[in-house]
Structure formats: C-alpha cells, structure tokens
Design a protein that fits this description.
Helix content is 13%, strand content 47%. It contains two helices and 14 strands, in the order ααββββββββββββββ. The chain starts with a helix and ends with a strand. The relative contact order is 0.14.
Amino acid sequence: MGKLTTIVTTIACIIYCACKPKPICSVTKDDLLQHNKDLVFAVDTTNPNSDYRDVGIDSIVGSYYSFYKNGQLKEYDFFVGKDTAIYKAKYDSLGRLISQRGEPLVRKTAELLGDSLAIKFFLLTLNINYKSIVISFPDSMNVPLKMSVDSSFSNVQAITYLIRGLTEPIIVNGTFIIEYENICAKESRKFIDSIRLEYKGSQ
C-alpha cells in the first residue's frame, strides 16, 4: 500500500508541474507604443497588425516586434544585421514565454572622447531584471555600473564606462559581468563578456 501511495503521489506531482501555468510576462502593442512611440515605426502602415521595428541607427540594427491579432507580443528579436538576430524570444497568444535564445548584452561600442576611451554596453530590459553589473580589470577591484535611459533602441538601456587619461599606447583587457533574472523563465543567470581594446596613441 505504501509503494502504491508513493507512485500515485509522484504521478500527481508530475501532472501538477506539467500543468502549472507559466507566468504571463509579455508586453502588448499598446505598451510598446505608449513607452517607445518615438523609437519604433510600423513596417507596414496600411496593416493594423503590422510588425514594428526600431528607428535605431539605420533601422536594421535594433529591436523587431511581431504581434498576435489580440495585440500580445508574438516574437521579439534584436537584429545586428539584416538577417542576423543576436537575441530572440517567442510567446504564445496569452503572453507566456515559449522559447528564448541569446543574452541581454545586445551591443557594445568604443569611442575616443578627447583623452578618454568610452566603452558603451547596451542591455535589453524587456522582461529582464538586473541584480548586479560590474566591470573589472587585472589587479583592480570590480567596479559596479549603473544603467541609464538611452534613446538609441526601444526596451534597451545603456551603460558607459570611461577610461581616462590616455597619454600613450595601451592595451585594455577587462571583464564585463552581469547577473540578471529572466522574469518569464523565472531563472537567475550570470553572463561574462571579455573586453580587449588597443589604443595606439594619437596620430
């Protein structure tokens, strides 16, 4: 009798886990247009169910949104080229995550500003909660970083780190570390990205 009870309990647990609803975490088309109106445009202005994409730097690099007829987000992609998405998430018509691929660091750039080197990281904020963001270099402590609103892309925020006082050629080696929670998948993750930049001095 004891074994039978154990088997029945195990089966019930499996059924409960399989049927347990996933959290509804998607955004709607109304949400997108309310909070990102000036950053996106309809791909087909004659179609009320049109996809939307970022105005961005060239309308190719950036976020791309497809919706169900009920307005729920169907698919989100961040494109780094015409046919190359670095991040992809799919949802069902009720707003539950079906699949997700990629990490939330979707873009990084480096730019010389006088005698300083500005390293800029772009982090996806769609259904992602950040717990810790740091940058570290050899023989130095981790430096915590903060995100700021950036108008380059929708549902993306930016972090800028300045390396000051460049007076001679150097090679910069560092590590960018983020700890975050995927709200839809209810899981915490850690992502590490290496940084290597060479400054050859003023020409």
